[in-house]
Specification:
The structure holds two protein chains of two kinds. Helix content of chain A is about 25%, strand content about 10%. Chain A is built from six helices and seven strands, in the order ββαβββαααββαα. Chain A has helices at about 20-25, 80-95, 100-110, 130-135, 170-175, 225-230, and strands at about 1-5, 10, 50, 60, 75, 145, 150-155. In chain A, the strands form two sheets. Chain A has a five-stranded mixed β-sheet with strand order 2-1-5-3-4, sandwiched between helices. A two-stranded antiparallel ribbon of chain A has the order 6-7. The longest helix of chain A has 17 residues, at about 80-95. Chain B has five domains: about 5-115, Glutaredoxin (3-Layer(aba) Sandwich), CATH 3.40.30.10; about 130-340, NADH-ubiquinone oxidoreductase 51kDa subunit (Rossmann fold, 3-Layer(aba) Sandwich), CATH 3.40.50.11540; about 350-435, Ubiquitin-like (UB roll) (Roll); about 440-525, de novo design (two linked rop proteins) (Up-down Bundle), CATH 1.20.1440.230; about 540-595, Alpha-Beta Plaits (2-Layer Sandwich). Chain B has a five-stranded mixed β-sheet, with helices on both faces. Chain B is of the alpha/beta class. Chain B is globular, with a radius of gyration of 26 Å. Classes of the chains: A alpha+beta, B alpha/beta. At the A-B interface, strand 4 and helix 2 of A face helix 17, helix 18 and helix 19 of B.
Chain lengths: ~230, ~600
Amino acid sequence: MTIKLNGLNVRVPDSYTTVLEVCKFYGLEIPTLCYDDGLEPYGGCRLCLVEIGEGDSAKLVSSCTYPVEDGLVVRTNTKRVIKARKMMIEMLVAICPSSKTIQDLASKFSVTKVRLPVRHEDCILCGKCVRMCKEQMQAGAIGFVERGYKKKITTPFDIRSETCRLCGGCIYICPACQLRCQGPDATTDLCSGCLSLEPTCIETHDDYQCWMGTTGDCGTCEGRPDQRKSKK
Amino acid sequence: MKQYRTHLLVCAGTGCVAAGSFEIKKALETEIAKRGLQKEIAVISTGCNGFCERGPIVVVQPEGIFYQNLSVRDIPHLVEEHFLKGRPVKKLMYVPPKEEKPIPKMSDIGFFKHQRLIVLRNRGRIDPEDIEEYIAFDGYKALEKALSGMEPKVIIDEIKTSGLRGRGGAGFPTGRKWELCREEKEPVKYLVCNADEGDPGAFMDRSILEADPHAVLEGMTIGAKAIGAQKGFIYVRTEYPLALKRLNIAIKQANEYGLLGKDILGTGFNFTIEVVRGAGAFVSGEETSLLAAISGRIGVPKQRPPYPVKRGLFNKPTNINNVETWANVPQIILRGAKWFAGMGTKGSKGTKIFSLVGKINNTGLVEVPMGLTVKEIIYDVGGGIPNNKRFKAVQTGGPSGGCIPENLLDLPIDYESLTKVGSMMGSGGMIVMDEETCMIDVAKYFMNFLRDESCGKCLSCREGTQMMWQILDRITKGKGELSDLELLEDLAIATKDASMCGLGQTAANPVLSTMRYFKDEYIAHIKDKKCPARVCKPLIKYTILDERCTGCMACLKVCPVNAISGKKKEVHTIDQKKCTKCGSCAEVCRFEAILVE
C-alpha cells in the first residue's frame, strides 16, 4: 500500500490500519489526547486532525480513527490543520486549565491566549477511562451519561458501582488528572509554557538569550525577587 | 364493493387531529346517520393534506370542494345544506388573504395549484390504514413489476437513470448507493429506512408515514430485491405515535396480503421489515449513530469510512435511505426513470417536499418540482407573509442549514445552489422569517438546539456549539464586544472543520450564514447596543410619547408588573426599572403612543 504523506509517496506496512499509526511510523509529530495504544480509537479530542484529499474535496479527519487506504493523500501540517488544532487546544485550556497534559500541549503548539471563558472543570470527556475500564479491565463500571453540553462520565445512577473493583485504571489513564506543575504562577489560564520552543521574551527583548532566565518578562523567574528587581 | 355518491375525506394528519378532526369525523357520521344518508355518503379519514394552517379540513369528492377550519358546531349545518339540499356552504370555504371571495374547489387554491404530487400523491385521498385503498390507486403494482420482470441490476440502473438523490439532506445518488451495497460480497445485507426526523419545524417524513405508509414499504421491498437484502428496519421517532401506529398496521396488512414476508407475490423472494422506535436523539438521524441505536448502543456517530454500505448494521453491508427517498422508488419503477428525470433541474431530479413554517400565510406541507425558486415557494404556494410584513430571510435545511436573505429570493431550490449560498437542502424544512425576526436571536435559538442535541463525542462540536451559544447569548443581552465576532467565526470554522459527523460539520451554519448576510445586525447589537428587529429584550426600551398619549389608562391596566403610572387624561410614564418589556402596552395602545426602540 502506498500513500502520499506530506507530499511524499510512502509505503505503508500492511499491519497498519489507521492514518495515525502511519504518521507515527514515519516520525511525524501528531498530538493526541483520547488516543492510547492499548485502547480502541475513539476520535473525540480532535487533536490528531490531518487533512486528507486535495482541492475542494479536502477535509479534516481525526487520524486515529481514519482507516488508511491505498492512494490516500494526507497532509499533517496545513494551515487549516494548525488553525483547527490550536482552537481545539484553546478550548481544552478553557475547560481544564489545571491539567499538565493540556498546558504542555498549549505551550508546545504555541497557543498563547485563551479568549474563551475559563471553566475549571475536572473532565474533558476524552473517554479514555471508559475504554480503559471496559477494554482493559473488563469491568465496564463507568460510562457516558447524557449528551451535548450535559455529557458526563459516571457510574450507573451516579452511585457506587458493584462492578468497580477500585483498580484505579481510570485515574492512571486520565490526561486531566495530572495537575500542572506549581510553577511561578499556577492560577493563570495558561502556564509559563516551559515546553515552548518559541522564545517568550521575543516581544520585549531582541536578545534570544532572555529565556535563559534573567529578566523575568516571561514570568519564568518570577519566583526569584532578585531577578525581577534587576529587570528594572 | 359498496358504491357511494359522495366521499368525505377528513384529514387525519397530526395537525388536523390536534385541531379536532376525529371529533369532526364523528360528528359527520352522526349527522349523516341522523338524516339517513349513511348508504350514500362515506366518511373516510386520510393522511395529511398539507394545508395544516387551515385544519381541520374536509374534502368532498368527487366535486373536490374544500372545507376548512371546521368546528363540530358547523357540522349539522354543513350536512343539512350541502349533502341534503345540495348547496355548498360558502362560509366554510377557503378565502385567500387579502381577498374576499371564497374558493370552492381544492384544485383552484394557490397552495395546491402549484404543487406536483408524486410522493404525496395519496395524501388526503386514501385511508392510510386500509391497504386495499392503496392497492386501488396502483399500489404494489411497481413491486409486482420489479419482482416478476426486472433483474436487480435493471432496477438499480432504472434508479440511477432517474437521477434520484437522497432526500435526507446530503443528496447522495440513490442508485449509486444501492449499487455499492449490491457489489459487497457478504451474503447478509440490511436495509434501513431513516425516519428519525428531528429538525424543529420539519414534518415531511412524518406526513408520508401517516398518509401513505405502504409507499415506503413498497419502495423498501423493491430496494431489497435490487440490493439482495432479506431484512429491513424502519427507525421511527417515538414522538411520532400516529406514524408508528399506521406503519405497524401497514406492515401487518402487507404481511397478510403476501406483499411482505416469505415468498412475496409467489416469486420466492423473502423480505421482512421491523420497526425500531427511536429514543428522542436528534443525532440518531446521522446514519452511523442510527445504526448504533438500532443495534442497542448509544446513538453516537462513528468514523466513516468504513461506510455503512460496506460495514453497517451488525457489521454487515447496510443501505440507508430516508423515508422520502424510499417513497419515490415505486413511482420511478412504475412510471419509468425518464418520466422522473423529466422533472427538476440538471443535478436535482424529481420533486421535493418542504414544510413551510414560520411567518407565512399557508403553513403546511408542499411538494414541488426541484428548481422552483424560493420566491415561488414562499409567495405562490405559501401565500406570502402575513400582516403585510416584509420578508427577511428563510432558513432551509433545519438547524444545521442556513438562511437565505431577500436578495437571493430568485434562487432555484436544488442541492447545489443551496450549498453554494451557505445553506443546504437538509430534509426540507423551511422556516420563513419576517422583518420582526432578529437574526442573532434565530442563530441563538438554533445553536441552543444544537448544543443540546450534539452527542458530545467530539470536543469541537460539544464545546464549539456551547461556546458559540454563549457568545450569541452575550450579544443578545447587549454584552457583546467587537472581538466576539472574530472569535465566533474562528469557533464556527473550527467546529465545521474538526467535527466527525454531519451534525458537527454543519452545526456552525446558523452562525456562519447569519454573519454572512446580516453582519450589520451583529454590529448594531454590539456597537450601538440596539436590536433592529426589536426582539432582544435587554436592548429595547418602551417609552410613552407625550404628544400622542391621551391618558386613556389602557396600557396602565394591562401592564402585568404595574410599571406604568399616570392619571386619567394625563400623560403616562413607564418605570424602566420595573418594565419587563413584555410589549402588552404597545399592543393595547390605540394611539400609537408607545415607542419601542
